[in-house]
Amino acid sequence: MDYGDTFHMRAHRIAGYLGDEWFGAPGNLIDGSDARITRDDGAQMWTRLIQRGAGRNRQTRILISPTFGDSAHFVPNLDAGRTEITIGTARSDEQIARDIRKRFLPAYLQSYEAAHAKQLAWELELANRQEFAQRLGAIIDAHKPGHTSYWLFGETPHRGQFRINGATVEMQFELPHDEAEHLLRFAADLTTA
Fold this sequence. Notes:
This protein is α+β, with helices and mostly antiparallel strands and 193 residues long. The chain folds into 2 domains: 3-119; 121-191. It is 43% helix and 26% strand. The chain contains 4 helices and 8 strands. It has helices at residues 3-18, 78-81, 93-143, 180-191; strands spanning 22-26, 34-39, 44-52, 59-66, 83-87, 149-153, 159-164, 167-172. Strands 1-2-3-4-5 form a 5-stranded antiparallel beta sheet, covered by helices on one side. Strands 6-7-8 form a 3-stranded antiparallel beta sheet, covered by helices on one side. α1 crosses α3 and α3 (93-143) crosses α4.
């Protein structure tokens, strides 16, 4: 068993002590000194084995840092969320997990959950906009069959453009999107534009 395998096994054990919702997995760095611990809702932390100091003062530590790969939506403030925990033969995996829960998880999970809720709200807004665009497009197509139309979202949920046969019509509208009178009014404006 090599160095990386040993560290990954330790990460699995630490995750087990964090609770049933956490699990360990190998990292993706070549040196094998990284592993990740993931919660079942997607929260993820990287654990990296590092050494500080020199000679007899050298300490082996685990650096714990939040990360989400390519997703920028869930990255909290690293300065507030990362920590190093000194490890050694005298410190058990359960003690390390206790330190993680005490020193790292409170700030990290609060930041993660707030960002996660914001992301879910944005995804719901996008779904609502898409539904609005489809319904509006269907009304326009019913009035003018064969017209190619699509909705181009603006920077805010209250503004956008509709394109019909190459002509772009910009409109301002009010929420909620799902009121039939809004759809009919905008469709009438667009089909006469």
